[in-house]
Amino acid sequence: REIGDRQGEAIAINNFGVFLGETGDRQQALVLLEQALAIRREVRDRIGEGFTLMNLGALYGQLGETETARDYLEQAVPIGREAQDGRDLGNTLNILGRVRLDLGDPKGALEAQTEAQQIQRRAGDRRGEALSTVSLGEIAASLGDDAKAIELFQEALDLQRALGNRRMEARALHSLGASHAARGENDEARAAFEAALPLRIAVADRAGEIVTRLALARLLVKSGDLGRAQREAAAAVDLVEALRTKITAQELRAGYLAGFRGVYDVLVDVLMRLDEREPGRGHAAEALSVHERGRARALLEALRESQVELRQGVAPELIEREGILRRTLASKAEVEMRLLSRKEPDAAGAAEVAREIDALRLELDRLEAKMRAESPRFAELSPAQPLSLAEIQADVLDADTVLLEYALSKEGSYLWVVTRDGLQSHRLPDAEKVEAKARRALELLATPVEATRPGSDELSSLLRELSETLLRPAAAAIDGKRIVVVPTGALQLLPLTVLPDPLHPDSPLVARHEVAGLPSAAVGAFLRRAHAGRPTPSQTLAVFADPVFSSDDERVGRRSPAAAKTVPVVNSAPVAAATSRDSLGHALRDAGLNGLPRLPFSRREAQNIAALVPARERLEALDFDANLDSARSPHLSDFRILHFATHGFLAASNPQYSGLVLSLVDAQGREQRGFLSAADVFNLRLSADLVVLSGCRTALGKVVAGEGVVGLTRAFLHAGADRVVASLWPVDDAATAELMRRFYEGMLGQRRLSPAAALREAQLALRSQRRWQAPFYWAGFQVQGEWR
Fold this sequence. Notes:
Layout: H1 6-22, H2 26-42, H3 46-62, H4 66-83, H5 86-102, H6 106-123, H7 126-142, H8 146-163, H9 166-182, H10 186-202, H11 206-223, H12 226-244, H13 250-259, H14 261-277, H15 283-293, H16 297-305, H17 316-340, H18 347-374, H19 376-380, H20 389-395, E1 401-407, E2 413-419, E3 422-428, H21 431-445, H22 457-470, H23 475-478, E4 482-486, E5 500-501, E6 504-508, E7 515-517, H24 521-532, E8 539-545, H25 581-587, H26 600-610, E9 618-622, H27 628-631, E10 639-645, E11 648-649, E12 659-661, E13 675-677, H28 678-682, E14 690-693, E15 701-704, E16 708-711, H29 712-719, E17 723-727, H30 733-748, H31 755-767, H32 775-778, E18 781-785
Parallel strand pairs: 1-4, 4-7, 8-9, 8-10, 10-14, 14-17
Antiparallel strand pairs: 1-2, 2-3, 5-6, 11-12, 12-13, 15-16, 17-18
Helix pairs in contact: 1-2, 1-3, 2-3, 3-4, 3-5, 4-5, 5-6, 5-7, 6-7, 7-8, 7-9, 8-9, 9-10, 9-11, 10-11, 11-12, 11-14, 12-14, 13-16, 14-15, 17-18, 21-22, 26-30, 30-31
């Protein structure tokens, strides 16, 4: 810098970034590599640009952002071909092969690795050839050819030892051990892992150390050495915890932890095996605490950060850039929604926009990381801590409530049943089988055809089996109690309310129990503390319904939009249900089904709800007033309940940018922004006791291992809501209007029921009517968050 050597500066920054990435500080490594890339493009150092693109691709692959990694590497490959530099091109193809393997493309991985090895041999690059040989062995192992893999790993090991490359020697040893373990050759596997571990410690390969300790722990479990297995798994968990604190960007941190989810699962399994061997020694309670350690940590930390003004002390230009990126992201998310919600969806155009969203999201992640690094308030925040058993019992539960926390993994599946004064633990069947049944049950529940009606043999059988697996072990503890569920895997998308009550198998669980869900017990405790520390909102209800989606809507151009009310308010009689698949299709509150049809029943729903609240305590945003500006207004913090009755939009490529569709045109028919994305919601500041998302699939989003469902529910919790009621599948417009009427009558009427109790009664009322008896009509909504 001092002598103005920009090219030399880029080399130094690139190499420092590579060093930080290899020693564990991967987020700072990203910042440096992006700086190096910008300089190399500025000075038109084409070869250097390819080299830094390769390093960025490798780093994103290590962070679990494999699609982003592939994009960077595929930009680097043509530069390597132009330069005719065998070493750089071979290395790039080698890393690309590993990334393709992680993406489930072994054929593409094999093509890249084979070409890499050929190029490196021609170039005399023995170091690169050794790396390619390891990678080819990993591909052979992924294809089930462990004998060939062992042959390749041994060849690579000899090459790495001759080169004195201890980092790659350790990788070859670990891979060799994994292939021996796959063949049941446990002694050989253990010897390889125990040789790899000190090498990984010596070269500060902390991510590699985690992986090897994890593999060794699994092997020790097989041999029955649970004591040492516990030590290795606990050391691996501690390393993951130490490394994740260096990643301040929330999405990157969540993705990083998801990549190491198996570390927590192995330690949980070891502790539960110890509990079976040594009952009463506290192992089950410790296992529950470890499981909580790996649950919804990024959400818990985001909730804590939301209560602190992190921008204080941050450079104004960074804050300005953050605002620009957020506005651009929101705009792009709306473009994607419009392209996919046309009568003839533009999938290709939407895919291109999704790629732009990915790039913007990563830039925002990096910017927020820089802002946090500069923020004095962020530096004051200590890492979020999970709860112990005693803290769960004291801070989350009461005498009438039971917590059911599930762990489903290939290591072992377990259920903890926690009451105010006790803990039971149970081993569950194979996770893969349980999840397959849960996914199939959800598929049938969410389908408005005969298969979902009472008496459907397949669905009834699946629900009975799931009840026996998931509820029967807790039957005595839950009798007469409220149930709070911390689910995992496919159970996050299955409403346990529909499962037969284990003590009353002719009735669903909802018949005798209130049921609510939490991402983790620690999140539940946080929400309760946050509520206790804030003032009570002055207003009761803000409701958004019946937005205007197109310029050909009959309300456009009228003097008084309110005159277009096509559905009268009727409190005394239920609305008619759709009776055929065609009419039901038009009644679904689901964006993307032949465009965005108007939702007239949402108007009835809103007006029925509003009638329960004095005019001075409510806001009714209907027609053109149900718009984005109203939904993002700071005045929403004055309301205790927020209700959105509109289309939900689930962005398949970027589910974290799913959202709600509000008025897309103004009173004159001019297009306007009207998509309230999860990213928009994340930055609201609410004081709501309850947010109701009365649309389709509003409880869905991106499922991140360990973290849970990243979508609208999470966004509203972050924004300040105590609890969210949202849907798991495309819901019927008429049935939902009736469900919501009864739900609000229970909460706001004379009995003043809690949201969980009111939802239960509304669901039972719908279920009692023959036309809405199928779970499809009444079971789709669930309460997430504070249950009291």
